[in-house]
Amino acid sequence: MTILEFILWSLLKVAVVTVVMLLGIAYTVLLERKLVGRIQNRWGPNRVGPFGLLQPLVDGAKSFLKEDLVPQGVYKPLYLLAPILSLGCALISISVVPFGEPKIGPKGLDLFSISNVNIGLLVILGVTSMGVYGIALAGWSSNNKYSLLGALRASAQLVSYELALGLSLVGVVMRAGSLNLRVIVEQQSKLGIASWNIFGGFQFVAFFIYLIAAFAETNRSPFDLVEAESELAGGYNIEYSSMKFAMFFMAEYGNMINVGCVATLLFLGGWTSPFGDLISPPQNILAHALFPIMWFVLKVFCFLCLYVWVRGTLPRFRYDQLMNFGWKWLLPIAILNIVATSLWLAYR
Amino acid sequence: MHLIVFILFAVFCLAGAVNLLLQTHPINSALSLIVVMTSLAVLYLLLGAEFLAAAQVIVYSGAIMVLFTFVVMLLNAGREERTLGSKAAKRIGFPAVVVILGVLSTLVLHVEGLGNAGPDNPITTTEDLSRVLFHELLLPFEVTSVLILIAILGAVALARKGHGDHEPDNKSAQEGTVAK
Amino acid sequence: MNFLLTSQVPLSWFLVLSAVLFVLGIVGFLIKRNLITVFMSIELMLNAVNLSFVTFACQWHAVKGQIFVFFVMMVAAAEAAVGLAIIIAIFRVRATLAVDRIDLMKL
Lengths: 348, 180, 107
What we know:
Helix content of chain C: over 70%
Distance between the termini of chain B: 72 Å
CATH class of chain C: Mainly Alpha
Helix content of chain B: over 70%
Radius of gyration of chain C: 19 Å
Distance between the termini of chain C: 66 Å
Number of strands of chain B: 1
Oligomer: heterotrimer
Number of domains of chain C: 1
Number of helices of chain B: 7
């Protein structure tokens, strides 16, 4: 296909995925509010639509219509750049995530992933590293002691847990032999649930390290002292209002979805069904294309429910306990996991 | 495609580097340097080094520059002052710089046999890189890990409070003696 | 369209860009008066050299060029950590980062 057709198809894929991602972010907020409400023995929002399903629309309208206050002493260029950087990094990582089987669409187009790069996993790690700047610059440009302290603590937390995150994924990469996300998923598709990396690949320790590091990376409970309203007078985003604050909020939920997608691809088998080859795929070509996407979305949904469940249940870590845990426990366990996996692979 | 991408990101590199020199506040210089490093990562992709491009973003832009940004924010030293500068730098430094640039450019542009970077060039996969790194160059790899360990220990020892703290001026020294 | 698909970039352009970035790093080292900015110019010089290594690795199809870039990155990371720790220690004593005030060992 010519380069112009390629660019147009890619723009179409990007538009569809961005719209789905933004809708996903909005409804993840609703999912969290409903689930946390049920954990706390109350209904979540249920007034606005049937079961509160129109609540995100109303929340979005509220964010747009609030007064957009820019305090006088802020350093304007960085103040305006920080939420853009945060939300941009959250939306960019989704571009290397493959959703479905490598179906070849018209003229050799790969329908279910925007781009299939050989180093897909490293791209996601790199974009996560760049997301630290959104928080750090937000705290700095706000010209406010509490913002700066909150931002520095948040950045230190993010940088520390990035190490454990990256190291926990090395076991999976060793088993698959490639950094390409499609190859990693296809390597888990032989026996259904028994060949997913978490069970058949014995990467359950790595999965739990990844889970804990992901909680810290996305600033979620139990590591959410950064945005704990009662602790730091709000943290790095106290000087932001209306849409810019909503962008930070969306970036956090976007990061949750990204982390869920990566966990699904690497540990839970991606788009492959848990029955593997026992149930033959449906003959209808449309169902054959859409079933893997359904499995993928279901697994990401389960992962998000796990996230919200942990948020509603566990208390918050103190900052020194958090840093202690990240450096003294998670990092050595991740390294031991790498050693154990490599020994197992060498003597298999 | 390679030509357009090269020109675009080379312009970003040069703009970032010039901005590094022209800005007065160190945080702006740090952000310009981040732009330079990320554009260099794209240029590495053009040259077929995909793992290095990812490593450049993760290590340089995402870790080293975060360290620089932290230090600028922590120390909060403010805008730099315009002083007279160094005479030696102006008299010998700038002409030497022009000479270096002239010699390098002339050499590079007149050399025969330099190829092109295009879509036909083979991409160096991570597997090729790791094969050489862990077979032939295993000793430098291990030595580098010891080096990084020493750097961590040195940084912690230097930046820790209580490491040979002197009083910055006489007033606090007097207060210290009075308090004792 | 064909031009877009098959256009190539002469490798000498990468080397000239590397030389210009290196020279800008030297100029930054000479004219900047803040300690952290001087240190950042050193990082710029290291990056320029990395670019020329990768260019030559592409020219000779030698993977060792890219591995050397890898080692330069690691050493630059170690150097940045220790250098910034030294800068913090200096700031604790002198309370300034202006290069012209830190030019004597005596306080």
